[in-house]
Amino acid sequence: MGLSAGLGTGGTRSGVCTSTTRPASPYIGQEIFETDTNNHKFWLGSTWSNGTAHSTLFEVEYLVIAGGGGGGYDVGGGGGAGGYRSSILGESSGGGAAAEPKLLLNAGTYAVVVGGGGARDTNASGTASNGENSSFGTITSVGGGGGASYVSGGGAPNAGASGGSGGGGTGYGWTSAGGLGTANQGYAGGATVGIGSSSNSHISGGGGGAGGVGATGTNTGTTTSAAGGVGVSSSANGTPTTRAVGGKGAGNNFAGSAATENTGNGGDGGGVPATSELGFNGASGVVIVRYPTTNATGRTITGGTITQFGSYTIHTFNSSGSLVIG
């Protein structure tokens, strides 16, 4: 007879009980599951078996993307994408890494932090701001590096900032490096290879992406921007979406566009003269947690925007909050 079969004394189900409400008159071989000890036991004729303990840990998959870096000022480098960590089955993490292991969680409350995008540089201060980190429990993704800005007065420019993915270097006729990415989260920003004179055509490096290095700015005058590094596609919420793309490195007459929020994309650099020398802010990140719906039977799980897709329940956090597992 199975776990759910029959009723014991007092109407207690003989298969599911506690250690103090076991069936009063069990038969040999009868099975029970004690909800207070998580032990599966059998009646041996004179006593219950010692039982087998079952874990109460709950398995979830996650996608954690940090905020993207801001774009540089005045022929600015592109902002680096936010760090990208994923345990989604069959998908990739950032920086060319395979999916990470799923998380096994006890019942409880788990903090979710969604990092904001880095601010663009507004006054040629050196680099735009890095994006903010995103996290879910023990999993942290690093904010994207800010893109480098042209240095007033024609001095040698700064390199792009390091981050989840690195910001692009700014050229303006010079050579500068892109920022470094974080291992298993994102790639480096693009360098700029100049020829030592600020009077030549200027194209700064693209920000690094979760899926590839930002393009190099060559100062050839043949393009108006250098591409940001590619992102990574995920169907964590049921819809294939590419996120964590590096911002474009600006050249003359380049007008970038705003990064889409909750993607972790880097901000485009600002061009000259274009419509403005200002670049764009990086995009905020996102945290997505999912699990097979059938695994949550008997539990109450809250937090974020909850949707269903196929066999999965999905919690999407576009802002900071908590995942609560009951």
Produce a short descriptive summary.
The chain has 326 residues and is mostly beta strands.
Radius of gyration: 27 Å
From the N-terminal CA to the C-terminal CA, the straight-line distance is: 30 Å
| Number of H- or I-type helical stretches | 0
Number of strands: 19
Low-confidence stretches: 1-12
Helix content: under 10%
From the spread of the alpha carbons, the general shape counts as rod-shaped
Strand content: 15-25%
Order of helices and strands: EEEEEEEEEEEEEEEEEEE
Q: How many domains comprise the coordinates?
A: 3
The main sheet comes to: 6 strands, antiparallel
Average pLDDT figure: 88
Structural class: mainly beta
- Quaternary state of this entry equals single chain
Describe the structure.
By secondary structure, the protein is mainly beta. The protein has 3 domains: 1-54, no CATH class; 56-103 and 112-290, no CATH class; 291-325, no CATH class. 0% of the residues lie in helices and 22% in strands. It contains no helices and 19 strands. The chain has strands at 16-17, 31-34, 39-42, 52-53, 58-65, 84-86, 103-105, 108-113, 134-136, 139-141, 225-226, 232-234, 241-243, 249-250, 286-292, 301-302, 305-309, 312-317, 321-325. The strands form 5 sheets. Strands 5, 6, 7, 15, 17 and 18 form a 6-stranded antiparallel sheet that branches. Strands 10-9-8-19-16 form a 5-stranded antiparallel sheet, with no helix packed on it. Strands 1-2-3-4 form a 4-stranded mixed sheet, with no helix packed on it. Strand 9 and strand 10 form a beta hairpin.
